[in-house]
């Protein structure tokens, strides 16, 4: 009962008795971490904190050596929030030994804050080092930090009071028992909190996965609808273009026949007796009026241009059909990657032609086992991203090659490039550096999934101001033990 009463008295809010040490103007708290951001976060959480109505004075050390200097010149430091891994993997633990064993300071409170628990297992540290608490940075909320700091400063205050009353040894045993009980309760609360946090984390992860899957499904359905629409339009246009092309060929034949007849008449006129010139005067007048020679040349030119235009329309229609591949959706078959790139370039040409020079460096490739319509979506996303990366005028280069049992497609640009801090996130769902409303952030994520289904990989290399290079590597044949899994 005496231990419990003394412990309660230590932590009850009461004015310091006259025999206690004179109140300091502030609580000195030493922050020891080599990460500037951790200092900023701790300062943000603690700068306005009051313990017993007294504010905190926060001191910063960015290494164990710097912390030793501050400890040597600041005897009133009450609490140390200490990182483990700094200039060495055990720099924090070495500082604990220095404080407790060499300096024989048992009063200052030491709380280990670690972001790398693998380097410092909690049980081993608590058993072998004289620390007062052990916290993972990832689990440390503002409320937990407040509770920890508040409790440790109150403990420090109690120890200082005990020192002044010369009851250190007696009350240290009582405090140790109370602290042990408190640690048991804290451990129980921590276990309960850990279980609750784990369940909450599982729910958050599951919800995020469901949301990602739903958005990817919507995006895939949208792309499938676009492909179906493109295929339908191409099919419907194919018939009228076919008979227009046939009629143009027939019309060209008829025109050539008429021009041949005209040439025959002109040959007769040229060989006729000059006395018969009057017979051809009307025809000569019409030839002059209608500029027959110009008409003959222009008529042939018009036929050539019209045929060229029809051929271009037919190529676009064929590219749409190849790109959409509604007849082979999710069907694994041997296909030509170079042809898929050509079809995709034709479809997205409107995005490229105004500001991009497209350079093609195709190698002779073997047919690979793939779902071509899915890979076309990957190529489309990479080409559109390359176009968007170029502000005014630039070059987009498309290369292909075969190395061993693998082919690769490389799409590079000389645009603005990707910031290093964004490279690790570009395949994350919904991540985009474009303005709000300008992109969904799903293009590269979906592309990554498609390439992964093909047992391939995407490599990326980028430099700000120099451009970006994406390389899609694909196996020539799918693994024999599971060749069709990616298509399901």
CATH H-level homologous superfamily name of the largest domain: Response regulator
Largest sheet: 6 strands, mixed
Mean pLDDT: 78
Terminal-residue CA separation: 70 Å
Q: What is the multimeric organization of the chains shown?
A: single chain
Low-confidence spans: pLDDT under 50, at least 5 residues?
1-23, 483-488
Helix- and strand-based class?
alpha/beta
The CATH architecture of the largest domain: 3-Layer(aba) Sandwich
Total of DSSP H or I helical runs spanning 4+ residues: 14
Remind me, CATH topology of the largest domain?
Rossmann fold
CATH class annotation of the largest domain: Alpha Beta
Order of helices and strands: HEHEEHEHEHEHHHHEHHEEHEEHHEE
Helix content: 40-55%
For the biggest β-sheet, the strand order reads: 2-3-1-4-5-6
The rough form would be described as rod-shaped
Beta-strand residue fraction: 15-25%
Write down how many β-strands occur, each being a DSSP E stretch of 2 or more residues. 13
How many separate domains?
Answer: 3
Compute the CA-based radius of gyration.
40 Å
What does this structure look like?
There is one protein chain. The protein is of the alpha/beta class. The protein folds into three domains: 2-166, 3-Layer(aba) Sandwich (Rossmann fold), CATH 3.40.50.2300; 209-324, no CATH class; 328-488, Histidine kinase-like ATPase, C-terminal domain (Heat Shock Protein 90), CATH 3.30.565.10. The protein has helices at 2-11, 36-46, 64-73, 91-102, 122-128, 142-164, 168-271, 281-290, 292-324, 337-347, 349-352, 372-389, 420-423, 443-453, and strands spanning 27-32, 50-51, 54-61, 77-82, 109-114, 133-136, 333-335, 356-361, 368-370, 394-403, 406-413, 457-463, 467-475. Helix 7 packs antiparallel against helix 9 and helix 12 (372-389) runs antiparallel to helix 14. The protein is rod-shaped, with a radius of gyration of 40 Å. It starts with a helix and ends in a 13-residue tail after the last strand.
